[in-house]
Write a structure and sequence with these properties.
This protein has helices at 4-26, 37-50, 94-101, 107-110, 128-135, 219-227, 239-243, 256-260, 399-404, and strands spanning 52-53, 61-62, 65-66, 73-74, 86-87, 124-125, 155-157, 171-174, 184-193, 199-207, 212-218, 232-236, 269-271, 277-280, 285-289, 297-304, 307-313, 318-322, 328-336, 345-355, 360-362, 367-374, 377-385, 392-396, 406-409, 419-428, 431-442. By secondary structure, the protein is α+β, with helices and mostly antiparallel strands. It has 3 domains: 4-258, no CATH class; 266-350, Immunoglobulin-like; 356-442, Sandwich (Immunoglobulin-like). The strands form 7 sheets. Strands 14, 16, 17, 19, 20, 22 and 25 form a 7-stranded mixed beta sheet that branches. Strands 7-12-8-9-10-11 form a 6-stranded antiparallel beta sheet, with helices on both faces. Strand 19 and strand 20 (345-355) form a beta hairpin.
């Protein structure tokens, strides 16, 4: 299977075009100095836009149909998975998605979010805001509507609004076409100049149906794109101010090192959610014994923390389903006919839950959310106004909050909402889980 090796070679060759410009802007050189955040953002964007994958079965949903088995695609799927599915890069490793692609019995082929979640089809995916937020080293996405200077610090509108002023790391924002319409963000990842210094081409990368895309436009075409639909070109001048407390380095995910590496995908067995992935307690874990090289299977062995849980002799090919009520880190591997051991699939079983004080809370008072977790740290409470796409807020859970088992929510969080979505997000070394409940706000 081809994975990220080709992507990284392409990415590094493109990045060399940017090195001199980035060095002149920051005073850095290529000789062993740390990468600028702009160059990191370009690399991280290309991890997602350049990865190649090929479905092994029919049935993986996309906008207006399905991805075709045996056809190679470039870039991760577009799907607004919300709290139901999982965002690639934020909720799961890229390698977890790639492992799921190789399992014809995985959630990619057996589950469909179409009709369940607005703007979603595939169980694993990305959207424009989770794509740019991932590249810009955030711990959780910022929706596209609040990327700009009206809502965030450390960002400005570029002047002039043209290709000649564009720089790698800039953001293109497309406002909603109507009151209830969706907005869009794209990232500038390359600026190619003529010998006289004028800009000849600008590369834009983005998440849009059907997969993440990479487009090199001439300066004229870029200007035409920018002027259409009242688009605006933004520049982040202070990344830490723009991110606020929402820094990727404060969390286990995104994990750029693992996402940039070439994974070894198990050819003997895979989980229904891929590999290297968390499950909830009691949630079925479907282990597909594929034995793709026909080596012969003597036994399936399941362990928790190195201690044996179950040894299933002569399971044959096919799906073995088990549920686990004890939290911990698990492995599943096969003993082959010749006595050798297969690569192990790794997964975690976790508990994550929260309770609200009542069905309604007062707009003018602080209140508490109680937390329950095991083998997973509660890290973020995400609040989203159901009636206002611009009103979203994050409360980052501290170690003191986790020890106390509760978080105090300021009255300001609900100031403008009548109904607020409350998402709890937890993570461990294998990924994240999300849970949503809604609460009514009264005056």
């Amino acid at each position: 299977m081809r994975t990220l090796t080709k992507l990284l070679l392409i990415g590094f060759s493109c990045l060399s075009l940017l090195a001199d410009e980035a060095a002149s802007e920051t005073g850095e050189t290529k000789a062993g100095r740390p990468l600028t955040w702009q160059k990191k953002s370009v690399e991280y964007a290309r991890v997602m836009s350049g990865v190649k994958w090929t479905p092994v079965a029919d049935g993986m949903p996309k906008r207006g149909g399905h991805f075709t088995a045996g056809k190679e695609y470039t870039g991760v799927p577009y799907s607004s998975v919300k709290h139901v599915g999982r965002y690639i890069g934020f909720d799961i490793f890229l390698k977890t998605f790639l492992a799921a692609v190789e399992n014809p019995k995985s959630v990619l082929y057996t589950e469909n979010l179409y009709g369940k979640v607005k703007n979603a089809e595939c169980y694993y995916g990305k959207v424009c805001s989770s794509y740019t937020s991932y590249a810009l080293q955030c711990g959780i996405w910022y929706v596209s509507k609040i990327h700009g200077p009206r809502f965030r610090e450390g960002v400005t509108i570029v002047e002039p609004q043209s290709a000649q002023a564009a720089r790698p790391g800039d953001i293109i924002y497309t406002p909603p076409a109507s009151k209830n319409g969706g907005s869009h963000v794209e990232m500038v990842t390359e600026v190619v100049r003529n010998e006289d210094g004028t800009v000849a081409h600008v590369r834009i990368e983005e998440s849009r149906p059907q997969t993440t895309s990479n487009t090199l436009r001439s300066a004229k075409a870029f200007d035409a794109h920018l002027s259409a639909r009242n688009r605006e070109l933004y520049r982040i001048t202070d990344l830490d101010a723009w991110r606020g407390s929402n820094k990727a380095e404060s969390f286990l995910f995104p994990n750029y090192e693992d996402d940039s590496a070439t994974p070894k995908i198990n050819r003997v067995l895979l989980l229904d959610r891929g590999d290297w992935v968390p499950y909830r307690t009691g949630q079925p874990v479907r282990i597909n014994i594929m034995d793709r090289d026909n080596r012969g299977i003597r036994a399936l062995v399941i362990k928790r923390g190195g201690t044996g849980v179950e040894n299933i002799t002569h399971p044959g090919k096919g799906v073995v389903e088990r549920s686990f009520n004890i939290c911990g880190d698990y492995t599943a591997h096969c003993v082959m006919k010749d006595g050798s051991l297969s690569q192990a699939c790794e997964f975690a079983v976790c508990e994550l839950d929260f309770s609200l004080p009542a069905a309604e809370v007062s707009r003018g008072a602080s209140w508490e959310i109680e937390l329950t977790s095991d083998n997973m740290n509660a890290i973020i409470l995400y609040f989203k106004n159901s009636a206002n796409g611009y009103d979203e807020q994050n409360v980052f859970i501290t170690e003191e909050d986790r020890e106390a088992g509760k978080v105090t929510i300021s009255a300001s969080v609900l100031q403008n909402a009548n109904t607020m979505q409350v998402w709890l997000i937890g993570e461990n070394k294998y990924g994240r889980l999300k849970m949503r409940r809604d609460i009514q706000v009264t005056d």
